[in-house]
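Here is one record:
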Amino acid sequence: MTISHRLLTAFIGITLMVLSATLLLARWSFEYGFLDYVNALEQNRLQQLSEILVEEYRSADNSWQNVDFHRLRQLLRQANLPQRIPLPTPPPREQAREQAREQARPRPPLPMPPQTVLLDNDGNVIAGAITTPDKQNPIVVAIMVDGVRVGELHTAPKRHFATAQETAFSRQQLSTSMVIALFSIVLAFIVSMLVTRKFLAPINRIATGVAKLSNGDYDSRIHQPRKDELGQLMADVDHLAVALNEAQNARRAWFANISHELRTPTTVLVGELEALKDGVRQLDMNQIESLSQEALRLQRLIDDLYQLSLSELGALNYHFESLDFSYLVKQQVASLNRQATPLGITITCQVEPHIVINGDNQRIQQLLSNVIQNSLAYTDKPGLISIKLAVQKQRVVLVIEDTPPGVTQAECDKLFEPLYRQEQSRSRRTAGGGLGLAICTNIAKAHRGSLDASPSSFGGLQMTLTLPTQNEQFNEQ
């Protein structure tokens, strides 16, 4: 069963339940209310009869024994005649139809009215007879003469419709209620259909959008402004489409870049081997060194890809221990200074001593080496690389800045994407594959830290590595 059928069934079911309960209560209220109305008329009849009996009592010297018994029986007999109960006047057409039906059909015999009984103060019957006694709740009217109670009039209350007029009126009300119920059901069905269609319209749009995404159409958007939960869901589906589209483009770019990076050293190797094979070049130490460099470049690229895949999967092995981070930074600077001097690049270092972190020695050295070598590779000569290490608010902060060429903030956000290379001044100048910073980011995250890039105040690039101190890591654990 679809959601629309379920909603429609639920709406109709609720309507039927409420309507049935309402009609039953209305019917019950009508029957008891109408009987109360009839009994009120009966009480009013007895009140009028009591006024007549008061006059008879006074004319008989204030004694029931002096009242003419036949006169009392006659009064009670007249009081027991069926009363015409005033009912609501039907509309003119209905009144004419009702009169025609009344004239066409024979009148049924009038039912026996409830017997009226006259009792004295001791409960003795003076006139009348109780043929259908109702001792539980009789209609009683006291006969008062000059403020003194001299007797009572009793009659049995009505418990059901007795006359044909009352029964016809009851049936008319029942028929009207059934017509109203039928009309309400039809109206509820129509309204339920409209509400269900209105409610399911955004859900169908979401389902259509998700179906397009599952079929690979990541350019589709729902674009329907709503302020409710469905509107938020639509916005989330659109965000998902954007994310999937970006992921697809990144995957395509990844394969294109990987193909390019692998093809370049492979093409060089094949070309040089073909030249040696054809005798264009002679096999000497220089040629062997060239082949070795290309093979090493290819090996480094494959190793970087492997390391990146492991870091993305969280499968790199980390052996955390207490490390003197200040010493590791100084060690890396001293090692890379030998490479920087021939390039005309000066490295300055300001390091607070004895900053201790909890980390993996090999991975931390790999991170430091990759970040500093990135600055060496992309800084014009003569250039400057500034390295500062300090503790700020229980966090270890390493800032590495270099001189031009610079980068924009938009480019800084892309530097950590695998195989990303600028096509302008900071273009690739080394044999790197563009994977080092992506690996460094994953290493920093594994140490509960972060690696960020921003434009440098020196005109180049600023790399900021933030790591927790050893005490902070223990507190987090």
